[in-house]
Amino acid sequence: MCNIVRFFLIINVLVAFHSLKSQEALPFKNVTTLIQPPFLKAGDTVAIVAPSGILKSREGEIQQAISLLKSWGLTPLLGKHVFNQADHFAGTDEERCEDLQNAMDNPKVSAIWCARGGYGTVRILDRLDYTQFKKHPKWVIGYSDITALHNQLHNKGFQSLHALMCVSLTEDMDGIEDTVTTFKSALFGQPVNYQLKGSTYNRTGKAIGQLVGGNLTILHTMLGSETSIDTSGKILFIEEIGEYKYHIDRMLQSLKRAGYFDNCEGVIVGDMSKLRKNTTLWGTSIEQLILDALSEYDFPIAFNMPAGHEKDNRALILGKTVELDVAKEKATISYLK
Questions:
Q1: Which residues of 108-242 form beta strands (DSSP E)?
Q2: Which in 111, 185, 228, 306 has the greatest CB count within 10 A?
């Protein structure tokens, strides 16, 4: 009898040990409190890197970005390979990763500003080492393709900044005043609360949760990987550009089938820009498409968030807790302490 008892005790210990090791191997998903990097102050250094698409003939915008940072009392640090060219990309995977890794490792860098999106960040995600970053967290800034990096940062337990990139700057700043102002406010520790114009499509309600998300295509392509985010108890922001409506529906259906919305607290819809027309028309507005795809859920949905691929691209702190209050007449997004 004693031998049998000992046998089952050993089995239970082995099962518990295997379970613990399996949990350790999982990505950092259900993080309750994310680390907020220090907000910037005059004299801080901001690294400019290009982890994605090529910066062909974009020297002017980068110079504008450098000038803007200097006007705020910040010190710009340009990545060594920013203007490199390797087919579609701003340098080889190794070169783009080197610039980003150097910025992550440099304790004197307080923020990392991505020069542009496009495509390419996913190719270097698994090469990144967060050892030094964890010792000296810093703001990572960008949108579009940079959503892949935002996802990874979220799963590692860090807040990040969904905001304009260097190539978003225009010579006369016409039409991007609020974009730049909210970017600066968020960077220097004065997050802006938003009141969105109303929409008859709004699904009313209130919710509180960490703000997550970004570009819908990137969120979709992260499914099944360590970089997919768990939206449980969180408020999801989405935006998109240059897609057919049926593509958007397909991505939402895929996310839904993967359980993405099962425990989501709310959805904020940003710009759906330059939607393409298929020869077979979809038949409804993009707003109705989204409502139909998410019809079985009861969380609030707010439209008209000015963030995404338009000139008016307001800054959002991802990973920070917000309160979402949605009515037909308006919706508000308020950051909580």
A1: 109-114, 139-142, 160-162, 194-197, 205-215, 234-241
A2: 111
